[in-house]
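Q: Could you predict the 3D structure of Carbohydrate ABC transporter permease?
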Amino acid sequence: MAATTETAPQPTYTNLGGRDRKAAFTNLGKVAGLVVLFVWCTFPFVWMVSTSFRGSQAGRDTNMFAGPFSTGSYERVFDEGFMWNLGNSIFVAATTTVVAIALASLAAYAIARLPIAYKLVILSGTLIATVFPPVSLVPPLTLIFNTLGWLGTYQAMIIPYVSLTLPLSIFILTTFFASIPGEMEEAAKVDGATPWQAFRKVIVPLAAPGVFAAAILVFVYAVNEYLIALSLVSQNPARTPATVAIATLSREGFADPIGEIAAACTMVSIPLIIAALIFQRRIVAGLTSGSVKG
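A: Sure. Here are the predicted structure tokens for Carbohydrate ABC transporter permease:
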């Protein structure tokens, strides 16, 4: 009996080289775009840090790598008591964040869970408060706080900041609470948890990305706010935040304190950058996840 020989199937050749080149060019374009975006975003900060070490020389020579470099600007900023102003900013921002997130969590949970009609309309209405320019709030706030004797106090900044950051915080947290299945709370209640315990021990931990995202946004806003602080607190140097202190740094003769301003801005920026890097995953998750159920 003759043996039969089987021929192996011939491979089909496709344009693999063209595909590989296309993929390589695509990846190269992505990397180049990321590099350009990174340089675009970090260049102002690098220039600011360079200016802080160059001092008044930065006003005469725009070459950011030209010396001499020194820490004199930082020393003068410390001598003017800027650390106290920075502490004021951190205290006001931290207090604003705690109060705003606590109130926003309760409001957002109610909107997400209670059988309320037109939830999207309510959320849209809360965001309307963000379109009012802060300058329009300064005259009435000045009159009110002057009557209460609160001008030049911490609460003159904290109360407006909480009011201005609540709408966005409520919107972000509502999207997260609405995306959490209601069965989670029902299971907690079956196990004997009260509604408050179910909210605090089940819902809030599951919505942690949204809570962190809202908290970071509120904190950054409170640290960077300038107009309200200048109008309501600048008359009391002991309560002046960092933003107002930077604008009122003392001059040396007729020269602008460019180095001191850059040094103070660097000192304010570094804690915010570190916080953003630490919580960047939670921030991204908080801004991109969740959905509102109508």
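Q: Anything worth pointing out?
A: The mean pLDDT is 82.
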